[in-house]
Amino acid sequence: MSDEQHPIPEPSPDKGPAHAEAGRPYLTTEKPGKHRGDPTLWDNFKKEFYADNTFTVTLFAIVLALIFGGILMIIGDADTRAQWGYFFYQPLKTLEASWDLVSKAYTDMFKGAVVNPDTVNRWYWDMTTWQQVFRPISETLTNAAPLILTGLAVAIPFRAGLFNIGGQGQAIMGAIGGGTVGILLKLPAPIVILLAILAGALLGGLWGLLVGVLKAKTGAHEVIVTIMLNYIALYFLFWYIRQAAIDDPNRSELISKPVPDSSIFPKLIDPALRVNLGILLALLVAAGVAWLLKRGTFGFELRAVGYNPNAAGTAGIKVGWTLALTMGLAGALAGLGGTTMVLGTAGNLTGEVVGQIGFNGILVALLGRVKPWGVVGAGLLFGALQAGGAAMQTFSGISNELVTAIQAMIVIFVAAPLLVKAVFRLRKSPSAAASAALAKG
Amino acid sequence: MTSMTVDNSLALPEGYWTRTRKAGLIMVLLGLIAAVYLTAIVPNEPARFFLGETTAASGASFSINGKVGTLIFGLLTIACGALLILTNKRFGLYVGLGLAFFVVAALIWQIAETGGQVPLSSLSKITMEKSLPLIFGAIAGVLCERSGVVNVAIEGQLLTGAFFAALFGTMVGSQWFGLVAAAIGGALISLILAWLAIRFLVDQVVIGVVLNALALGLTGFFYEQVMREDTKSFNSPGLLPVWTVPGLSEIPIIGPALFKGTILTYAALLLVVAATVALFRTRWGLRTRAVGEHPAAADTVGIKVLGLRYVNVMIAGLVAGFGGAYFSMVTASSFTKNITGGLGFIALAAMIFGRWHPVGAFLAAIFFGFSSALSSLLQAIQSPIPSDFLAMLPYVATIFAVAGLVGRSRAPAADGKPYVKG
C-alpha cells in the first residue's frame, strides 16, 4: 500500500515519536541500508550456528541418526555384542572394538559414496584407471536421480496441501510407459529416448491425475487413494510383464525383454561409469519446479490453495482444477523417476524395477523441507547413503538395511525439530526460521 | 481427515437417482452380465463343490449345471438390484447380497469351464487365515483413529510384532512369551507415534509413513545381521499349536474356519466383540469417541484428551503387534525381511472400508481375505482370469468406498488433528 492512497493521519499531540512532526508518524527519516551497528555476516553466522534454524537442525538430525546407526551396528555384530558382556572387565577393549567396528563401517560408506583415497593413490601410481576414482561419485549421482524426481513428486503436492504417498505407483506406471516405448519402438536413439521420457511422464501423470480428480470431485482423501493406487499399479505391472509383447520368452522369472541399447539413457561421463542422463533430467526438472513454484502463475495458485483453499477459491482460483493438475504434475515427475530406473539402470522391466524410490521419495521430500533445491540436496544425501551402504555391506559385512533405518531416523528427527532442539539444547534462532513447517497439524 | 466437495455432478436435479438407486442399477447390469453373457459362454457341464476340506471323491459334495447356475445367480443379482431401485432402502444388505450372488455366478462359470474342484471348507478356512492379520490391523486402526490419531503405521506395528515374536519367542524359548513380546513390539512403534504426534504435534500421516520405513529398516537390518547368522538361537519360534473345538469344528463350510485354528483365530473373534462392546457400551468408549469427534468439548467436561489418546494409541499398538505374530508363528515358523509385504496397508483399507467400526472392519477384512483366497483358488484351478486383477479388488473397492460411489466412509471429525489446549 502506498502513501498516496492512504492520507497520513494527523500526528497526535500526546503520543508518537519525537520526529512525528515530519508528517510520517511512525517511520524514521533515516535511509535504509548498512549501518555501523548492524551485525556483520560473521556475527550472524556465530548467532545462527548453534541455533534452531533449518540448516543446524538438519545437520544435527543427520548426526543423531548416524550415532543411532552406530549403536545398531554394535548390537548387530555378534563379536562386539559378546565383547560388551565383558564391559566391566575390559572397558577400554570393549570401547575400542566398538569404535573400530563403527568407524570402519562409516569409512567404507564414505569411500563408497564420495571418494576412496586408496583408489586415488593407486591411480596416481598408474595402477588403476581414472574411472575408478570417480566411481563412488557416479554411483551417488545414479542413485540420486530417481530419488530427486520422486521427492519432487511429493514436495509439489505438499505445497498445495496434499500428501502424495503414491509416488511408488506413479513411478511404476512411468516405468511401464517408458519401458514399453523403450523396448518396442525401433527408432534412432535421441527420438526413442525422448518419446520414452514423454510416455513415462504421461502415464505417471495420468495415474496422479486420477487422484487429483477423485479428490476434487468427490473429496476422497488423497492419502488413502494413493496408497491403494500403489498396489493396483504393482499388480498391473505383474500382469503387464507377462504379456506376450513384453515378456522375455527365454527366461522363466517375471522379467521383460531387455531394453535395446538404442533406448538406454546415454552415459554422461564415460561408458564405464553408470551415471547417466537421469541426473541431468532430475536437475533440469528441479530447476523447472523451482521456477514454477516461485514465479509461475500455476505455482502461485498451487501455493495459495495450500495456504488456504477457501480463500483461494474466493479469490477466483479454481481449487479443484488446481488440485487435479498438481497431482497430475506430481505423477508425471514420479513417472520420470520410474523411467529413469528402467532406461537408466535396470535395462528391463521386473516386478521390483522401481525399487523403493516412491517411498524413499517421501523421506527425501520431507528432509528437503518440500523445497525444490532442498529436495535435490536430500536426494543427493540419500543417493550417497545408498551408494555408501552398498560399499559398507561389501567391505564391512554390515547389512545395507541399516541405510533404510538411518534414512527414516534422519527424517523423524527433521520432522520433529523440537526433539532435536531439546536433545542438543539449541538456542532460539534469531531469524526464527520456520523450521517447524513440518510440524503443522 | 478433511474432505472437500467442489463439484458433485453425480447428483441429478430430479433427485430420483439417489446413490442407492444408482448402486441398484449397477447391480442389475452385473446381474445381466451373469445371466445373459456368462450363461451363453459357460459350457453345459456341472460345477462340483465339495463341502469338506479335501476334494476326495468320497467327500460330501453337490454339483450344479453351469448354465443353470449362472442363470439362477445372475437373476438373483438382478433381483437385488431391482429391490434397491424400487425400495431405495437397505443399501448395505442388498449390495452385499447382490455382489455375493454375482461372485457365485462367476465362480460357477469358472469351475464349469475348467472342471476344477473346489473344497468349500478349505476356501472358508483360507479366507479366515488370510483375514487374520487384517482383522488385528484394522481393529488397531479403529481404536487409534476413533480417538483422533491417524494410524498409518499399522504396517510397521505388524512388522515389529512379527519380528519380536520370532526373536524373543526363540530367545526365551517360549511361544507364549513370543506373543507377549509381539504385542510389546507393536506398542513400541505406537509409543513413538503417540509421543511425536501428541507431544511434538508432528503431522500424524507423515510420522506414520516414516515409522513404517523405520520398522522396515530396523527389522530388516537385525534380520540380516543377527537372525540369518544364527537361525537356531534367534529365529525359530515354531508354529503355534492348532486348537480344535470338538463338535463345532465339524460344521460344514464354516466349522474349520472358526473352530480349528491357533490362539490368534480365537483372539481375533474375541477382539471384534470386545472392541465393539468397549467402544459403544462403556464409559471408556464414549470418551474415546468424544475425543475423536470433538476434543475441545470433551476437554470441557473434564476428559483428559491427550491422556486418553496416549492410552488408545498404545492399545492399538498392542493389538496390531499381537496380530503381527501371525506372520512369524502361523503362516511361517520364522521371520523374514518385510514379511508383512504391505498387508498393513490393506488393514488400513479394511478399516476405512468398514467405516471406522469394529464390526465393519471385521467384515471388510473377511471380504479382503476372501478375494485373496479366491485369487489363489482361481490360480489353482488354472482359470484364465488373471489373478493379478483379482488381487487388485480390495484396493479398487476401497477407492470406490472413499470416493463415495458405494456408500461414503467418513472419518471421525477430529481424526489427524492434534489437540492443543487453550
What does this 3D model show about the protein?
With 441 residues, chain A is mainly α. Chain A has a domain at 146-369. Chain A contains 17 helices and no strands. In chain A, helix 10 packs across helix 11. Chain A starts with 40 loop residues before the first helix and ends in a 17-residue tail after the last helix. Chain B is mainly alpha-helical. Chain B folds into two domains: 19-116, no CATH class; 122-402, ABC transporter involved in vitamin B12 uptake, BtuC (Orthogonal Bundle), CATH 1.10.3470. Chain B is 68% helix and 4% strand. Chain B has helices at 19-41, 66-87, 91-114, 120-145, 154-172, 175-199, 204-227, 231-234, 255-259, 263-281, 283-293, 295-300, 305-331, 343-353, 358-380, 387-402, and strands at 46-50, 61-65, 118-119, 243-244, 260-261. A three-stranded mixed sheet of chain B has the order 2-1-3. In chain B, strands 4-5 form a two-stranded antiparallel ribbon. The model of chain B is unreliable at 1-6 (pLDDT under 50). The chains are: A mainly alpha (441), B mainly alpha (422). Chains A and B meet through helix 2, helix 8, helix 9, helix 14 and helix 16 of A and helix 7, helix 14 and helix 16 of B.
Describe the structure in brief.
The complex is a heterodimer of chains A (441) and B (422). Chain A has helices at 41-49, 54-76, 78-84, 91-113, 117-124, 130-159, 167-184, 189-218, 222-241, 277-295, 297-307, 309-314, 319-346, 357-367, 372-396, 401-415, 417-424. By secondary structure, chain A is an all-alpha fold.
